[in-house]
Amino acid sequence: MSEEGQTAPPFMDNLHPLESKVLLALVPPQSAPPTLDQLASSTGLEPSQLSMAVEWLLAKSLIAVHAETTAYIASLTATGEVFFDQAAPIERVLSAAREAGQTGRRLTIQDIQSKEQLEPSDVSKAVGTLKKEGAILIVQGGCIESTGRNSATAEAMRALLQALRDGQRDLETFAEPLRSVLQQHAVKRGNAREPFRVDERVTRSFVLTDAGRNVAERLSRDGVAEEVSQLTPELLKEGAWRTKQFRKYTISLRAPRIAAGKRHPYREFLDLVKLKLVSMGFQEMRGTLVETEFWNMDALFMPQFHPARDIHDVYFVKNPTHARAIAEPYLTNVTQVHEKGTGASSTGWRYQFDVERAKRLVLRSQGTAVSARRLAANPSVPGKYFSIARCFRYDQVDATHATDFFQVEGIVLGADINFRTLLGLLNLFAREVAQAKEVKFLPAYFPFTEPSVEMHVRHPKLGWMELGGAGLFRPEVTTPLGVSVPVIAWGLGLDRMAMVALGIHDIRDLFSADLEFIRTMRGSF
Amino acid sequence: MPTISLQRDDLEALIAGPDGTPVRIPLDQLEQSLMLVKGELKGHNAETGELRIELQDSNRPDLWCCEGIARQIRIKQRGAAISYPFFKKQKRVAGKLVVAPGLDRIRPYVAACTAIGYRVTASGLTQLIQTQEKLADIFGRKRRTVSIGLYRLAPIVFPVSYDLVRPDEVRFTPLGMETVMTLSEILMVHPKGVEYGGILSGHDQLPVLRDAKGQVLSFPPIINSREIGEVQVGDHELFVEVTGTDLHMVALTLNIFAANLADRGAVITPVEIQSPAKTAFGRRWNTPVDFGAPRTIPLKAIEGALGEALGSKEVTTALKSYGYTVKSAGPKVAVQLPPYRNDLLHTVDVVEDVAISQGYARFAPVMPSQFTVGGLSRLEQMADRVRHLMVGMEFQEIISNIMGSHQDFCAKMRVDGTEWAKVVEVDNVMSLSYSCLRQWITPSLLQVETNSSRAFYPHRMFEVGEVAIPDVSADIGSRTVTKLGAVIAHAGAHFSEIHSCLDLLLYYLDRPFTLESVPHPSFLEGRAGAIVVGGRVIGLLGELHPEVLEQWQIGVPAVALELEVDRLFDEG
Questions:
Q1: What φ, ψ does residue A90 adopt, rounded to 5°?
Q2: How many angstroms away from the CA of B403 is the closest CA of chain A?
């Protein structure tokens, strides 16, 4: 390649000013390839800027590592500082043994631990070393006696503490036995309570590559053009941008992360369901988190002795325990339909209805409670209603059970409602909500509907799955609430679909409290 | 509802019936047939031949057993009900069972029969016991309304008496024990006495079944005698008895047992019950008893509910092949349930049986055609506007559980003992972590902040969600309120940041507001404000108190905003 060539060498145009500085510093002949420290002094760059520029140049192969040497640097840890001030455990054990020898008192390991407030492991390590060196003896009854001899380790320890107090040193500069004592008492994995640490320090020296020399020589010949990185209002105002050169960016780098303001992905999913339902002609209904057993169960013709009404299925409210009153005529009507089927051409459940029980307050356990309230509040005929209601079940929380969860449910009223239109509506749900083409209807049981249907659909990802349950409200539900047309009750189990759309496997993740997880979660729907 | 375990061979033999030859039924075909009983195949062990089936219908206890499932399938295959001669009125009884006066206060009803000629096999015994347990536990509400006893018939001398005795008057050796015990000892010591004794508490006299020789059969609903009440493999003469508090449930339970044993080849002979007082069945009656009555239903009612003009012929066929007795006469059908069922409350129950018998696939779906207008509630529309504005101000939306702990909602927020600590609490707490409903959103967001110190800053998050506010003026003692909560957390989080958000939010919603200083313990003094709109406080905002942040182990300053979305509507 010719230096007179028309084309600039690669990377010439988008060199960062920091990179140019480093390249120029490497051009003059030197006695030996410079290290990072030497480059820092010749370029005058901050260490962080310098290492950034060096990494960029290495990535572009404009410079190369000439040599890499590793040094081991010893220094004092925080524990070492303490040992320097208060003496190391081995020194303290030794002096305690000597002091006991002078006063003639018996000294056990436990005595040392409690008196010197040392860790048992430190004491036993120190005692072991001292015994090996012959500085102490362990006599009958586990007592420690000083032999009067010196401990090489204790002395080395003191010398090292003293030496490193003044600053870190290359491990090589310590002669034996100091060096091995230092290494024995250096911080290792699993034992941070050591006085010394030894760090590996890698020193690299750098040279220009052929391409780098090419670029650098051209730089030193042409000089570094005056580059600007940021267009400013001033440059625009004065028109000075015309004389400037704008540094080119390496645009293939990853963009810095930002956080968006956005909807929760699960809420996005629910919003979509909401939109679908509204577009199919459904009106939204809302209810309360706390309900009476009356609206939660009695109005739905669930007998008060029904097994699902046990204490183990529903959360009861502590205070007040009971509602003040249940609106009439619904209380009377429902009481009579339970007891004798009155008004609904039914036999009823044939038991004595407990009005107090009906007033018992519970946490809403099924969204159908919202529908029951709606039926009693003069609904439109024909009419379609839905709610996305938070419900509570007395379940152990695990990967498939949340303490509270959303139920999507509703009702359809109309003179044309029958079993076949019920199936037609479910077909519509399967197509619109689950994008399913294949649907299966199975007999099902719900206390408040007859006939009852379970709808299974073939989900594009999950295969056959239950999408929801539905049925025609029993006349024992509708008649006491003043509704005389047939009514479809339906509910959709969408959490599994939501979990697939959001790529999660634990229902608790729908209500995650992890911001990073929520920020990165995205739905495919 | 119950999940039962049964043997595939046993099921197939029962489907074939006493005169048929069992055939292997492929599992997919079995799953199809289970639609007839609202059953779902939950598991199959190819090695042992065990099937696990979940039954959905809580009104059909006759289906909670191998015999019942097989019966429903067999009836469909043969196209007609199975007739059980012992349900017909007959003179011959195995003996009498005399009910003593006074039992009406404690456990008034009993039904019984004998079953001879079925030699009990090991798997048959397992099924008998499973049925006994499921019926007593779920249908009989843990033996409270119904419990069942099975005995060897040979040692029993009729008449049997159902008596009331003092707890220390009678003693016998109960099942599972080696020694003779009094009734009060059984209640105190025997595991079943401990488990079910509560049913009898408060009574100074207790029920006991004894034979003519004074031998104790059982102490219902607690435990059988070990001598007579322990049925074993090889026994072929049985006595079955049901006691309880509801005459019809007691009778139905015995009917189910009688049909089950008959299906296994036993000859059932009724027992005459003698009651001290008149019941719906009179003073004396035989059990098993067919207490069902025919019901006349207009054909139109069935066709209208199904949306399909089936005609009387198809309806009749459908019901007959589902076990009904049917007489069709012009525009009406007279139907009667088989005696092992008592779940016909309304015409719609018959309608569903027609549909199940014919298969739901028989009915072509039709779209409901009437026009309705869809729409969101006013509150949801407002909530959506608020959410969109918050997103525009770069907040991440959060969804949290509404149930949580007093610790999180109050104690960690420093509001214990103040008006802000009123929450709806749960009576039957399962776990302290889920013992009340949140009264505000901020703790939910701080929970997120606690877990997210490693997510890059700044953190801006919000939730629009429901909370429960105790309110003595409400009928149900609380109000459900939709609130907006928002939290900003980062090293420089400041009151003015959240104040600006509020300002912008209420500007776009056109709700002019003022702030009034409020001494709220969750916030730094002098850095908290009550948001006043139209003279009403609708929320608050401020810099969270360092102690609150410490409690939540949050290491950066945070500011919060809390607002009632319900109160953002124009009052006009």
A1: -65, -35
A2: 7
